[in-house]
Amino acid sequence: xxxELKTKETDNSVIEFIETVESPKKRxxxxxxxxxxxxxxxxxxxxxxxxxxxxxxxxxxYPTGHxxxxxxxxxxxxxxxxxxxxxxxxxxxxxLLKSFGKHTTGKACxxxxxxxxxxxxxxxxxxxxxxxxxxxxxPSH
Length: 141
Description:
Blueprint: H1 2-6, E1 9-10, H2 14-19, H3 24-41, E2 45-48, E3 52-61, E4 67-77, E5 82-85, H4 92-98, E6 104-105, E7 109-112, H5 120-137
Helix pairs in contact: 3-5, 4-5
């Protein structure tokens, strides 16, 4: 969960950020993902840190006493691959990823090369499950 700690929501423009993405194909995918995430979560896109586009937020508190705010879901059009951020503890994630299409998984994210490689319906399901899971795990008071 390390990435959450240093990643804060900023007021930077999401569109301006997407426009800085060098590859036209990746830029096009970023706009596609922007639409899908926005439509599926019902949240406006916000920049989290310099390069992550996040949707919604929740307040977490660990048993250690550490607390903060993190995005519910998000993505980042990185140079090599596109990183997708979903809830890590969500049980259905593994099941859904089986039918997701071409991807690799890291500790906190799922990496894809392009939107054409994946099943968008499964992506929507992954987004929904993450949001439900996080809102249940960290109810807002």
